[in-house]
Design goal:
Elements (H helix, E strand, L loop, with lengths): L2 H20 L22 H8 L5 H19 L2
Length: 78
Amino acid sequence: MGKENDERYLHWIDHVVKDSLGKDGIQSLPGFGKPLKKEALQGDALSSTLKNARYLPEWLRLQKEIKQEIENAIKSGN
């Protein structure tokens, strides 16, 4: 992204934030003005969002399934 695109993008974000502040959009959100929970400050945003949504990507589901199959095979002695 070039400097011109960066400035256009930042201007757009600025506009959205200012617009939300003017219409009480941000102030009406639950938890506005309260400190963030400790969990919100840990890890990365994508992982915590997926976890909160209880979304498990297919590859992780398969990984858990394989691990469980291996554990079952070890327990049964096969």
